[in-house]
Amino acid sequence: MINRINNCYLYCFLLLMLFSGSKLMAQQKQDSTQIKNLYYQALNEKAKGNPDQAKTTLQNLLKLDEHNDAALFELARIELAQQNLGDAAIHAKKATTLKPDNEWYWILLADVYKQMEDFKSLPAIFDELVRLKPEKKEYYYDRAYALFLNNKFNESLAAYNAIEQKFGKDDNISIARQEIYLKQNDPKKAITEISAIKDAQPDSTKGYILLANLYLKLDKPKDALKVLDEGHRHIPGDPYISLSKADAYHSLKDEEKSKKELKQAFTSDKMGFEGKMRLLISLMSDPKSKEITPIINDLANTLTVNYPTDARAFALYGDILAQQKQLKEAREQYLKAIDLNSRVNTIWEQLLQIELTLGMQKEALAHAYKASALFPEQPLTQFFCGHAFFMEKKYTDARSCFEAALNYTDEKNNLLLTQVYSSLGDTYHALDMFAESDQAYEEALTLDSNNVGTLNNYAYYLSLRKTNLNEAAKMSKKSNELDPDNPTFQDTYAWVLFQQGNYKEALVWIEKAISSSEKASFALLEHYGDILFKLGDTEKAISKWKEAKASAQTTGENVELLSKKIDAKKYLE
User: Residue 55: how many CB atoms within 10 A of its CB?
Assistant: First the structure.
């Protein structure tokens, strides 16, 4: 009886185990399917440009399977792209622990540590990559350089020597060893290393320039010139040797010879157009470019003479002149560039910006019509076109341009978006679209709460409409705190106070504005008179109104209302 009962229990237990096992297998299969679905969902979200959603999906996946190396890898990639380096390092490191033979996991971990500037961790990673791919030369170089970054100079030298033994001689190895010898304060070995490159390739420019640059680094310009003279004997007229000579003569403070070598390099047929462009760009980018402005301008002009049909030459000359604040001359070069090639939007942008800066509103308007049609999807071009239209009171056209700029501006470009929204605020106000104007200003201030131009304009237009004056006063006061002694901002604050009925304080600020101005404008004088009238000083108010009317003769302001004030001897709206 007992045995039968025991057998019965055993049978039930086995059935229960089989049932539980099948249930567990079904659950595991279900989990596996769910994990796969989540993984591919994350990849899809990432491909669509939704990294945050992809990140959340991968985190949910890892809650189901914390050892999923592929999910850890993808999560680390997203975190690296978002500069969340600490978490990226944790997840990439875990992926390499789970799958130590996956080359891409180690590469990602190396990239993370490079971003973190954790150079101490790099050699061990490259040891792993060398283990995995013993024929990949670049991993050996990376390992040697990582040792150099960790100031392990002897180990780095040994690593470069091992590369040379395994893969053969390479100039890059000699250059790397030179850097190590310099760090070890052994310039003789550095010179010997680079001299070997020159001696092995006497008809190549490379060795002469490398050795000359080394001598210049060691503050031995005369030795550099000897090497370069030797180079020119082997390679007559080489422009790149001439450029190095220019540097050497500059070090010797022999500017005439330096300019001569520079000009010789630039006029050489052995240097192509792109090379000359790069040379000019490097010269204009040099912090000491002001010292050699005449030679830069001469070379830029020479480029346009030698390449009269290439718009890039004239555009670059325009950039150089614009950098030097020679705006009228720059404008002429941009016009020539556009005549040769009208399909480069950046040239139009520079041209419009200069014309607006110079107050050439009619010219800017004419160019805005062309540029806005040519580049409907270029936000910066549309932005400058919008300002050209706005300045000429073509508000509907301005609105179209600013709205186009808004539609095509990258959502991460907060600087441009702020300016576009602010400009839309001005434009909508001019079109009596007050609700839209306020919304545009609010958007601009959401992006940059300290944008003084937006704070001032928003406050001023609210004051004109006598709407939300308390908020207008706060914004105007803030703009003056951020940019003190600005007469326009001081005038706005005075006018907001005026609209609030705070005439005594308004008088203080309008007088500040006039004091901050080189010459009191029409608006300042008219506002001054308005405030004085409200304070009961009618005689002085009329005097200021008359001054304002006189100034309007040169500025072309509308004086109809002002004339009525003078005639009526009282403030009118």
Answer: 20
